[in-house]
Amino acid sequence: MPPIVAGKHRRKVRFSSSNQPPPTASDPATSQQKRPGTSVKHSKVSSARIMATQELPRAGIPELFTQPPSVQDPLATESSDLQSATIEKCLPFLKGIQSSQQGPFNAHGVPALQRDDHIAYLYDSLEDYPSGFVILDASRPWMSYWGLAGLFMIGEDPTRFRSRLLQTLRPAQNRTGGFGGGHGQISHLAGSYAAVLSLAIVGGEEAFSVIDRHAMWQWLGRLKQADGGFRVCEGGEEDVRGAYCVMAILTLLDLPVELPPNVEARKAGLENLTDGLAQYLSRCQTYEGGISGSPGVEAHGAYAYCALACLALLGPPEETLTRHMNLPLLLSWLSARQYAPEGGFSGRTNKLVDGCYSHWVGGCWPIIQSALDGKPQANGPPSTTVGSLFSREGLTRYILSCCQAKHGGLRDKPGKHPDSYHTCYVLAGLSAMQHYHYRTDRSVTSDRNFASAFSWKSTPIREGNVYEKSDRLEPLHPLFGIPFPRPTNCGSGAKLALCRPTRKRSR
Amino acid sequence: MDGQYANDPEWADVTPIPLDDGSNEEVMPLASIAYPPEYIEATSYLRAVMAANEMSERALKLTQDVIALNPAHYTVWIYRAKILFALNKSLEEEMAWLNKVSLKYLKNYQIWHHRQVLMSSREHFPTIPPKELDFLMEMFAQDSKNYHVWTYRHWLVRHFKLWDSPREIEDIDALLKADVRNNSAWSHRYMLRFSPREEDVPDSGLANAGDMSTTPADKGRLAIVDEDMVDAELEYAQKAIVLAPENRSPWWYARGVLRAAGRGLGEWEEFAGRFVEGDAVKSTHAVELLAEVYAEDGEKGQKAVDLLTLLKERYDPIRKNYWDYRIKQIEVDV
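^ Those are the sequences you sent over. The predicted structure of the assembly is below.
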């Protein structure tokens, strides 16, 4: 899900010698995917057809990741120029011969995860920002979430930030329900989602008690639309992000499914927050098979994740996905998001790879795999599975070779600066791909509603990896983006409190 | 507080509400920002006027100041829209200002929703303003795949019922002529031609979708088909494919057209075959389409498997696991 504002800016905290403010969200010089050549101006390509370069790659790297694609059209257009330039820029990184790469490289020619650098970057991302970052003022709950989720995945203990997080979020909550970006900002589903997830990551009764659940429920009811979807805030736009955020909040906070009395949506004949929601998502599937932000627009990877995760929260994916999505069409589009030689995912047809889609597109795969594997039979992995339908090797190579910034943090692609949005979601993609996520026939809650959402488990994948054991990350829940909930005895019905992170492994 | 607002007699009656960012003596909030003093001041006055739900000229001016300091402040945009309507301001003037802001901040959700809120006023805009589409083309000249702008344009089409307006298809033709790989333009074209437009049918990317009575396999099927239009669109896609056969966009557009018309892929067998001569492949999409045509014909299952194997092993090995899955599907069916 794209953040409220592009959180794609270089942290200056680590580079305090610079007095330059960061680029604004839409600075023409840095805005992503803006004008042909701006983001990749150092590698001019005159023709769409790229020639294989002569420099030899490190040992252990298959040709698939060191050569341009075997089928290329001669016709050059803006899209193909950008694509060619991106490949040219990625190739030295994929070959492991770019001087800025840190290594050490393993037998597959893949550099190690710069764990310590990323940990330092993530800790830093939770500290003070200089004045140029004022454009992130409406995204502060996101900043907390990205930092805390990133730290959890990389093996640090985010619960140490509990009291600071509570202090941060208290003034952002509105009496009329929900969280805004900060004090005096109206409640927004994106901010509320990030706030609830952050609280779930730090866990505990106090975190849970910060949230006015009754007001939250009433506010969600006011966002419900007659067509089944949700506005992201009162007076704001309606889109698939809203649908997913509502379902994540509803499930984690164990809120009533019924619509509150006297809300507008009741006049349209709706009774539940979930009424018409799956049908709304169904109408967002496009002729390409992917899913758009709202009905009738172009298929997009971030919205695909929101829609699929939302369907999988609504009910078992083998029922909800097969009932509401044309799965063969969806699979075809999703699979086409992975490119070679880059190995990473793009968000749309004829757009470039971007590390953040490691999560948005990568995160669709476990949900689809679970839908294809069918009804869970036991409290363990299914006896047969379709397995990974994408190239885990390709994604590993893109993330570790192309997305690690020299001084820590992860990024969209070579040539881009890291930021906490990309650091979180690139790590989330790496983590998801390192684990096999499956559902069991048991839920960690006794609740009958949304039992399927709480029946997921994960186990590390041990075969066919091109990364080292020391590069392994902690798993995140595939629908919530938080540590796996586990049963605790800290309160009845308090689902959020169930979501206490498991103790980190010692390394 | 000593600043622009504090020293302005016009604001003397307002008591600003100072920022609470969670800081206190013991605890530092997370990801705090060292706000510029003018932002601290402007947002303190904003909280005060919003708390009083003030609809005034000075509040309108204040929203502009806050937007200039932080255009991603979604709250201020929503407040601004309310004030504009409450004071019955000229929305034409607002649009002119908005155009400048939009070109400055290309990747911004709020601007485009704000524009939609204004444009949805039938009282102010009974028909689409003449320069509206010119401005969108100006935006596309900066970023021809800007998702927010395309989302807004889709809304415009539905709001003003522009599906058959010549300008829509002219702009799409121009954008595809400039870059035949512009998938956003292809998507918009599909919406113009095949998305539901009936008043009583909710908006949908595919016809026949999101209804309890339909199954996902039938998504996209039109109840009534204009075969001439379908033929013309298929020809349009073929011309685009000839220019760049490995361009995914027109291939999948054509599949969507055939799906809408309830026609099989079989009629494209000859055309697709032109891009696959034995092992010499000019388009992986042609190979995939041929494989599907063969798979539908039970007796040619092996030929289908051979083609998918070609993709898996030679032309598109990054998707090996997916091609294996597809091969398995055919083997199960056979």
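Chain B touches chain A through 103 residues (CB under 8 Å). Residues 242 and 275 of chain B are 9 Å apart (CA to CA).

Shout if you want it in another format.
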